[in-house]
Amino acid sequence: MKKSLFVGIALLFFxxxxxxxxxxxxxxxxxGGSTTVTGGATISxxxxxxxxxxxxxxxxxxxxxxxxxAGATTCVDHADFLSAGNHNLSFNITAPAxxxxxxxxxxxxxxxxxxxxxxxxxxxxxxxxxxSGGGGGGSCDxxxxxxxxxxxxxxxxxxxxxxxxxxxxxxxxGSGNAQISGGILNLDDQPxxxxxxxxxxxxxxxxxxxxxxxxxxxxxxxxxNSDAVTLxxxxxxxxxxxxxxxxxxxxxxxxxxxxxxxxxxxxxNTRFRFRVSNLYGGGNERxxxxxxxxxxxxxxxxxxxxxxxxxxxxxxxxxxxxxxxSVGSFTVTVEGTT
Length: 338
Hints:
6-stranded mixed beta sheet; 23 strands; 6-stranded antiparallel beta sheet; 49% strand; mainly beta
């Protein structure tokens, strides 16, 4: 009897599930790879993160930052990203107080409060240069309001005006649709009056060369895509405004921050305004602002010699400063020259 032998070749396919991972792909400071600021200045950081895998293993819910490998860490508990994909967000950090060049270390975390799986260090080399003159000599000032006063008059004393309320339902900082209460600026338009409530504030920036507007913002759970608040700026004391950004297409709770160059609108009466530009009239729909400040810097004036006169052995130089924002003239007398 003849037997046939069948040899079977089995191909085994091993299915390996995609491992969950969170990693930072890139980051910017003030919109670029590096920034030069004064000590303690506010810096806007944008972080780009890719998450893979399934379940809560692909979450990105907080980010830690520090300057240098051994620097003190700060955790930013920001908006949550709960699905695999490419994500990005911005938040503000504070520059070191001491002059120098600093590497920025960033770590993305799976859970709130910077716990759980993390991305490992992402290093932005030479990200921040701290110079006492902001890179060009001179000085800087901050116009600040953290809203802890719960009033329209709070913040540093160098503001040109208090907060300016436009609100048909308003009766001061603690009531109506445009409030400063609970340690935060709040805007809504309940119940959809269409009156576009707003809050504005003004600063005299005429003696500065550069200015940056920084703030944190958030929305509450009832907010939906159609609600909108517009940030606008004026260089003529509110006579006319130009839009900077409209905050819309947001669903529910969201937290963010902005660092905006407003140098082009520097004037003696620079005014910015947050205005409800659409809806915000439903339940638990509010736009909120906190930790607001303008960082304004002036560079050292460069003298230009216009005349040179002598009286025996005493040369006298007369001229003017040619730096924007500098005023007046000077006279330098050099004694005892030959």
